[in-house]
Model the fold of this input.
Amino acid sequence: MKWFALPAVLLALLVDACGTSQPDDPPSGKAGGKQAEELVLGESSLKRPRAKVPLKLCDGTAVEVVRVDGDAAIATWRKLRGHARTSGLWPVLIGSPEDASLLVDTVTLNCKDGHTFERTLRRASEVDVEHAISRVARIYGVRARDLRGSTPLPDDPPSDQFLVPLDVLTEEPLPEVLIALVPVDEGWKAPAILPWGNYNENPRPAVHTAVLRDWSRRYGAELVSMTGDVLEMAVTRPPSSDQAALALAREQFSYSPDIVQQGVGDVEALAASLRNGHAWYFWWD
Done:
């Protein structure tokens, strides 16, 4: 079995003191990274996956995947994110090995269905986001009265925790979390280059790409996690007022109805978690 080397800058970050509590400005360089036959990670927190993860782009290019302990996953994401401008690789938590295998299945099926990076980006540029998420809401049976809500919102704490690195039952960090190093310069492009969604009533990759791009521009939201059925985003400019949080909650409820219908219960509870919250979570059954 052959392993591939990470760009030197990614290895360097593991011995320096970089990384902050908030991500840097979005990267703008081209994607890429020097490859070699042996993955040498030294004393770093990144390790080889115990088993090779066959995650590939639609053109057959293998995606580099490394692993980290669950309790170090978000800190490692922030460090890798901080070097994305130089490395040309966007880090995406793809969860446990089981989560990763579901992602591989989804990507493989969408590639076979004709989705390509260029085609999905083009289609995403033509998506009317408001219309697209309204259509998702109708499919899931979300009613107009479900979206109304009112203020003041409940006095609940904001959402600041990412769930993909945690065991869903114990809420303890997973022993192993995989991180894919995706060759894109901005996180919202990940569902396009690794075509994501398009199962059950989950929207197609172009819709996810368009929605994530819209929220990236409006809220500074950046993709952190993409598993077989979950997306998570880190947010630098969350809504701070009840009214703004409720308006965003209506969008998110429409986009991902399961986070309310099988989650927090109503749009007001969702809005309370979004007010000043820096971690967004989406799930499709």
